[in-house]
Amino acid sequence: MASRKAPAGAGSGLAAAGRERERERAHLELAELGPLLEEKGDQAEDPPCPAAREEEEEEVVRVLTLPLQAHHAMEKMEEFVYKVWEGRWRVIPYDVLPDWLKDNDYLLHGHRPPMPSFRACFRSIFRIHTETGNIWTHLLGFVLFLCLGILTMLRPNMYFMAPLQEKVVFGMFFLGAVLCLSFSWLFHTVYCHSEKVSRTFSKLDYSGIALLIMGSFVPWLYYSFYCSPQPRLIYLSIVCVLGISAIIVAQWDRFATPKHRQTRAGVFLGLGLSGVVPTMHFTIAEGFVKATTVGQMGWFFLMAVMYITGAGLYAARIPERFFPGKFDIWFQSHQIFHVLVVAAAFVHFYGVSNLQEFRYGLEGGCTDDSLL
Ligand SMILES: [Zn+2]
């Protein structure tokens, strides 16, 4: 067997050394990436390694020059990507995650390793890990709102007073919901791809929440202030300015870090709570009874409670905070928050549909004693 001590001029010695290095490299790769990959199916690349070769191994490592090491690192990455591409990865504990994947230290196990392959990320939708629940809650929510949106758009025009205008108004709500939910499930799917991809998609995810809130305001303000175009326009403009500000804040790189979890909950809570002003306006102008009956305030109050509960659980990381490691896969705060977002958006749609029906019942008439 040729060793690195063979004379430099010996051609056959060099070729043998090359083969040797090749085997060493494969062995080293597996030793380093082993914890991230499944054992099964690895036998082919793991040649039997006689104990006598151990000393030589160390020597080979020592003589590796820098460019060679860089080349090996590249090859190692390629090999890893290939295995991940094949779906041969396994979940890993929180403490071995790279910093950019460390988000919630109460989820102790079941994390996906970094997988710089979109194919692998999308295939992981069908595997069980810390993000499975987050992906599916918003993937199913996305399908639900896409269907509801299509059904609403296809509704015969005879059910609307001003079909085009009203469909645009509902369309804004569905656009916000569909964008928010799709950005969200996409973010949770590709979150483990790489630092850059995770950062880009987290910005989209947060922007989506702002879009959902802005979109939700549109039909609510449209039907609640049906006969008062001026306050309607003012409130709509304010929520747009606040929403766009939230989107701008979400582009800040540090916004997505665990340190700013409360800031995030606060920004979106504040955006949602800006609805308190038009609610007060409506209630003072029309009285509490009309606000709760005709104004559907009960439903909107329930919607607000759901959003606030979701944001609170998200910020405080309840329940996993009290039982670290027990909610790694199911029922972690983020999943509960996701479910509450979908439920709240649905309750909002129901409330807004009732408002639409009421205005249709009045045949869109605005009289002096009618609502606003
Ligand atoms: Zn999420």
UniProtKB/TrEMBL annotation:
GO molecular function, one term: signaling receptor activity
Biased composition (Basic and acidic residues): 18-30
Residues annotated for Zn(2+) binding in this entry: H188, H334, H338
A Gene Ontology BP annotation from the UniProt entry: adiponectin-activated signaling pathway
Annotated segments matching region Disordered: 1-56
One Pfam family cited in the UniProt record for this chain: HlyIII
Spans through the membrane: 135-156, 168-192, 204-222, 234-253, 265-285, 297-316, 336-353
Record's protein name: PAQR1 protein
